[in-house]
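R.M. (postdoc): so does anyone remember the format we settled on? I'll just put the C-alpha cells first.
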C-alpha cells in the first residue's frame, strides 16, 4: 500500500522554492562565466556535493548496493553529458533559452518510458502534450529576432546544446527507472551522478582550456551556491519529497522552473525574451503540464461527462 501523502501546503511551498533554485542555477552560472567557465564550475560543484552526500550516507549508515555499478556508471556519464551541453549552451545562448529547452527532459523521459516500460504507455492526451511541446520547441528555435546571432555559430547552436541537455536528462530518468537503480537509495543514485560529472567535466574543462578560475567574490559565492544549495541541498530535499509525497502531484510544479529561469534571466542578466520565444515557451510548458497531469485532466473530463449525463437523465 502506498503511504505517501497528497500535496499539502508544506510540500507546495518547498517545491516552489526548489523550482526557484533550479531556475536560478543557469542564470548564476552565466553571470560569472567570465571568472569561471560553466563546465569547470559544474565539475567543482559536483565534486564538492559528492563529498557532502557521501558524508550524509556515512552519517546515516546507509547500505550501498554495489551491483548497481553498471547502470550507475551510465547515469554518471549521462549526467555529465547533460551539464556539458548546458555549459556549452550558456556560452552561446541566453540563460532563459537554456533553462526552457533543458526542461524538455520530461517529454524525452515519457517517450523513453513508453518505449521501454509497457506500464508507462502514453495516452492520447499525453501524445497531444508531446505534440504541443515539440511545436513549442520548433517555435523557440525560430524565435531569435537578432540576425547577427541567428547563424549556426550563434544562439541557434546554443539552443541545440540545451535541447541535447534535456535529452540526456530524460535518458538519465529512463535509465534509473528501468535498472536496479530504481531500488537503490536516492543518495547512492545521486552519488553516481555527481561523481561522474565531477570526473568527466573536470577532464573536459582541462582538455578544452577552460580550467581557469579567477576567485572573485561573485565566483566564490556562485560556487558555494551551486555546490551547497543546488547540488547538495535541493537534490536531497527533492528525494525527500519523492519519498514522502505522491510523485504525480509533485510533477505538476515542473513547469515553474523554466518560468523562474526566464524571469530571473530578464531581471538579473538583462535578457529580453523574443516574442516568438515567449510563444514557443508557452507551448513547451503547456505540453509538459499536459504530459505530467494527464491523469488529472482525464479524470476531470470523465467527471464532467458523468455530471452531464446525470443532468440529462
Amino acid at each position: 500500500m502506498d503511504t505517501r501523502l497528497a500535496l499539502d501546503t508544506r510540500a507546495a511551498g518547498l517545491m516552489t522554492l526548489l523550482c526557484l533554485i533550479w531556475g536560478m542555477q543557469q542564470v548564476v552560472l552565466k553571470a560569472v562565466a567570465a571568472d569561471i567557465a560553466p563546465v569547470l564550475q559544474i565539475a567543482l560543484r559536483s565534486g564538492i556535493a559528492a563529498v557532502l552526500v557521501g558524508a550524509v550516507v556515512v552519517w546515516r549508515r546507509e547500505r550501498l548496493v554495489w551491483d548497481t555499478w553498471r547502470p550507475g556508471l551510465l547515469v554518471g556519464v549521462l549526467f555529465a553529458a547533460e551539464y556539458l551541453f548546458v555549459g556549452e549552451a550558456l556560452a552561446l545562448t541566453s540563460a532563459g533559452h537554456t533553462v526552457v529547452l533543458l526542461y524538455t527532459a520530461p517529454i524525452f523521459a515519457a517517450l523513453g518510458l513508453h518505449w521501454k516500460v509497457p506500464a508507462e504507455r502514453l495516452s492520447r492526451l499525453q501524445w497531444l502534450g508531446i505534440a504541443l511541446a515539440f511545436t513549442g520547441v520548433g517555435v523557440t528555435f525560430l524565435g531569435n529576432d537578432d540576425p547577427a546571432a541567428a547563424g549556426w555559430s550563434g544562439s541557434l547552436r546554443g539552443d541545440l546544446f540545451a535541447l541535447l541537455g534535456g535529452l540526456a536528462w530524460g535518458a538519465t530518468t529512463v535509465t534509473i527507472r528501468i535498472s536496479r537503480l530504481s531500488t537503490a537509495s536516492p543518495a547512492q543514485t545521486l552519488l553516481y551522478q555527481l561523481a561522474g560529472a565531477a570526473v568527466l567535466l573536470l577532464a573536459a574543462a582541462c582538455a578544452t582550456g577552460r580550467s581557469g578560475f579567477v576567485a572573485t567574490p561573485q565566483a566564490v559565492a556562485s560556487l558555494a551556491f551551486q555546490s551547497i544549495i543546488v547540488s547538495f541541498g535541493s537534490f536531497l530535499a527533492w528525494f525527500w519529497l519523492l519519498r514522502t509525497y505522491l510523485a504525480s502531484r509533485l510533477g505538476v510544479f515542473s513547469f515553474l522552473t523554466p518560468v523562474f529561469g526566464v524571469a530571473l534571466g530578464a531581471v538579473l542578466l538583462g535578457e529580453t525574451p523574443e516574442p516568438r520565444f515567449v510563444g514557443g515557451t508557452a507551448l513547451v510548458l503547456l505540453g509538459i503540464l499536459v504530459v505530467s497531469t494527464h491523469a488529472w485532466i482525464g479524470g476531470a473530463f470523465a467527471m464532467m461527462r458523468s455530471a452531464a449525463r446525470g443532468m440529462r437523465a
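R.M.: ...and that's the designed sequence above, right after the C-alpha cells. Also worth knowing: The radius of gyration is 20 Å. DSSP finds 13 helices and no strands in the chain.
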